[in-house]
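WARN retry 2 of 3 for item q-0093 after timeout on previous attempt; input resubmitted unchanged.
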Amino acid sequence: MNADETDAQIREVADERRLPSSHLDRWLAMDPLSRAAMLEIARALRLRTGQLVTALETLDEIAVREHVTVAVILDRPEIRRIANGSGSVPSHASALLEALRTLRYPLLKRMQDELRTEVSALKLPRGISIDLPKELGSDELTVSLRARSAAELAHLLDTLDRSRSGLTRIIEMLGGKK
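OK item q-0093 returned
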C-alpha cells in the first residue's frame, strides 16, 4: 500500500472514531512506516477513540525519549505478542496500553511491582484487601475488611495489627520513602 492509500485509510479510521484533528495530525506527521504500523495496530485491536488517543500520545512520548520511530516501538516483541495474540480484542487493546505505559514510565512500573510484592508478602486472609492507588496517583492506601461475625472481625483486626510493620513500609513507599 502506498503512502496516499495509507493516509486515506488513517483518515477513514479517524473519521469512524471521531478522532480529534490534533491527534489525526500527530498520526499523519509520523514517518510512513510508523503511520502504517499504527494503522495496523488500530485496526487489529479495534482501538476505541480514547485508546487511540492514549496510544498516539504515549507512543509519541516514547519515540521522543528513546529517539526511535513509532514503527520501531510497535515492532518490539512485547508489542507484537499483544497485537498478534489470541483472545479477546478488548483485552489486547488494554494490554497494549499497559505495555506502552510500562515503556513510557519504567520507574512507575517497577514501583508498582515492588508494592504488589510487599502486599503479597503480608499473606493477608481473604477478608482483608489492600488497594493501591491507581497509577500511584496518591499516597493513600485503602484497607478493606469483610467479616460475617464478631469473631471473624476480631481475627482480621488482630491480623492487621500483626501486619502493622509491613503496612507501614507500604505507606512509606507510597510516600516516596524506601
